[in-house]
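Minutes, structural biology subgroup

Action item carried over from last meeting: produce the structure token record for Multidrug transporter AcrB (Marilutibacter maris). EB confirmed the sequence was re-checked against the source entry. Recorded below for completeness.
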Amino acid sequence: MTPVLAVMGLLLGLLAVMITPREEEPQIDVTMANVFVPFDGAGARDVEQMVATPLEQKLSEIEGIKHVYSISRPGLAVLTVEYEVGVQRQPALVRLYNQVFSNQDWLPQGVGVGVPVVKPKGIDDVPVMAVTLWSDDPDVDATRLAEVAHTLESDLKRISGTRDIYTIGAPERAVLVTLDATKLAAYDLSPGELAQALQAANVVRQAGERVAADAAVPVTAGRFLASAEEVASLVIGSNGGKPLLLSDVATVQSRGDLASRYAWFGAPAGRGSGPEAGIAPAVTIAIAKKPGSNASDITRAVALRLDQLRGELIPDGIHATVTRDYGSTAADKALKLIQKLVFATASVVLLVLFALGWREAIVVGSAVVLTLAVTLFASHVMGFTLNRVSLFALIFSIGILVDDAIVVVENIHRHLAIPGADGRKRTLREVIPPAVDEVGGPTILATFTVIAALMPMAFVSGLMGPYMRPIPINASVGMLLSLLIALIVTPWLSLKLLGRHGHSVESDHAHEERQQGWLHRLFHKVMSPFLLGARAGRRRGLLFASMVGLVLLAASLAAFELVVLKMLPFDNKSEVQIVVDMPEGSTLEQTNALLGELAAEVDRVPEVLDYQGYAGTAAPINFNGLVRQYFLRSGSNVGDLQVNLVDKHHRDRQSHEIARAMRPVLAAIGRRHGASVKVVEVPPGPPVLAPLVAEVYGPEYAGQRRIARALAEDAFAKTEGIVDIDTSVEADAPRETLVLDRTRAARLGVAQATVSEAIAIAVSGRDATYVQDARSKYPRPVRLRLPARDQAWLQSLLAVRVRSAQGTLVPLSELVTVEREDWDGAIHHKDGLPVAYVMADEAGALDSPLYGMFSIVGKLGDARPAGQALDQSFIAQPADTSGYAIKWDGEWQITYETFRDMGIAYAAGMVLIYLLVVAQFRSYLVPLVIMAPIPLTVIGVMPGHALLHAQFTATSMIGMIALAGIIVRNSILLVDFINQESGRGVPLAKAVIDACAVRAKPIALTGVAAMLGAFFILDDPIFNGLAISLIFGIFVSTILTLVVIPLLYYTLLAHRTDREADAA
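Output recorded by EB:
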């Protein structure tokens, strides 16, 4: 039965590798949604008071809500609902829809507040692939590229697993009706009447059925407008008995409107396949995947389909360049990590081969492979994907998964060398039961102590919890399975393999000589001064005191900044994003020109493969952009430059080094234009609004804005290493308001709505209706507008006429006056309180935002930015906003929450380990001795980080937590053996030395095995902290455990014996 179960386990593991979806990062269930509420014509303050604030209060009542944000802009409220991590998407969105639409009566009625629009967002809205279409042909413009892209959207949507497919940067194609104001006046028409005529002419009705020839024939009344020609030939009136056509008073064209966005593609000469002219117009197709589908399969299928469509849907001369392929990177990462998993397993098997023999190595290797196979299947069943974190969990676990098998095999190997009581050779059937029984209890206990140390990490809250959750869960499940395999499969394999080579029968004398081997002599020499003699007790005391001193000294390395604390280090990615914010009021052409300057500088960077510019819109978002809501970035003053780097295997510098080198040069270019230019890297872990965020609260929003500006210009700007400084405060921009003279309008019988419609047509155009062209994927609007030259001239706008009640046309100049004032800046709220944000990044020598933040905190101690005293909060929003206060957020908040939760998990693990050991040894003091090596790990961990100039990160903390369980295993083996020897009547001092000599080999083997497993993740930028903690922590603490724990236990037993003797 055992071999059948083993084969089934291997097959299940193989199946899991084949069917488990591959992704680069873990799937984090982040449910968020935006609620858009239009309020046409209202100022930001009116939108805040009449829409945003009451709706915030209702949304905050929803179960599972973490934060409610709002931005109140002139004419629009945008509310963002962020749920707690792990809240299921579908029920959460149902609750949101119910709350929004069942409380519309809270919104003011009859003043122009529109119907709320709910737009949910989640991790699966992040495109896994982006394909940029561009051409060197000057006759192929962005409009033609957009037509090709829209055709491809429909074709690619047929690929299984694809979700949302959309085009970025496509110019808006419309049927433009450019009005001739002179002809309109000559024919006694107004723009509003033309809009009504277009709407009336584009109505179709199902008129019913009529019976003809004994058959029911459905009747449809009318036909939709289908082309620009039909629109141009539309009869809008009569003139002298002749029909008056729309083309008589306007120019009708089917083409792109005035540009509201630009997109282009570029690449350095001689690198990749870029345009001959440096940059070329482009559009980008973004492709997202369905939840649970395999990203690598989808992107591979899309790439294959694009190759098939070249020359068909993709005409010759149009290039389709893949500018994002997360599926490929996920597959490459998974393959590389699986290879590391194989190498780690092989290295552990080789270790056992040299230490015990080739048959023992086969037994241990089989146990490890079987454990990994079953663990992979269990991981798939639990819903995890094959991603970097889950695979790193298995690689890290190799060293501890093999522990149980090593301990069992080594003890069988040792018992085989011990003759029976009658001096004869014992058979394996006689040896295996007592050998397994001897270490079975300690092994079971040690396995559960490791699980007790790891499992509490699965309950870490926030984004970091689900991101790192595969590590504790996969490792714990693997440990449990490895225990079962070590107690079931390993003895069976040992019976089949170890009995095939001979063992000489040793006499008692020979066995005694074996015990007096070099390990016994070594430990006798090391331990005797602390066990024997009058000064042994004093020496033990000095040894224990020195250990305490070393622990404190190692911990102080962080206080002296010899070890830098950081949430997570940056990974070596293949992309960098440059986010541009021009001053409010900047034109699209100005933004695009700045992007061109930035691109010219980026073009000089030797590691750049290609780049895409997006003016007036956002680049395809990643997970960072999802959380920061970059998808909402639009307008003439915003732009993105998406930079792709050559493969990391073909460059020397990591992406973080490249970004740091680019930042000062690009920021200087931005400053010349008064723009904010930020170099945004893909964060290694959960993203935040910015690495450094100061939230300013207070009684008046104007005061909050002043303080935010003062903080940015003073405290932030004057702190060394602080870069990419920006605020949520928008710069003042001029605004013109055309104010209706209501008295005169009432006398002429002109409604304000009529005037507003005419102004909208004159200034930016108005979509009167739509044309559905069979060749176009999307309906095209029929847009009424003035010529561009008239839109720019105020007098031409005021010359537009509207119809009065008396039937005459009245120019707007007789009805409105022009008032000039500053544009209302956006008003931000967070959880019901007005807030102004100051955002920045850290690029100093320490490269950790925490140090920059605390440097600013120190400067603000007695400072009064903008003349205001400031309180500072680090954990929660200020309870009292009658005065001005700062709440620090960003990476600090997630670092605090993560390390707080990990600290709680660490403490919970310690308590569980203590209770397990108490239950086993029936003592309250012995567990304290067994757990004593846990703090000794600091002696290895902190100096190890300092030695390798590595930051102490969240993964380093995970390594320390895992060390607690690993090191306690060694203590249990030692203490249990001392108890067994003492129970046989062996003197306590000799029992201590024997325990060190006999258990040193399995302890060293398991320690080196864990270090070997960690060695294979040492080169990963994110997980090297975990590797350093394990390698240095195990190395130092294992050596110290073999000395300190037996001596500490000896001291406890000796003191107990002396006390009992005194009592007697």
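Discussion: Residues 31-121 form a domain with the Alpha-Beta Plaits fold (CATH 3.30.70.1430).
Next step: EB to file the record with the rest of the batch.
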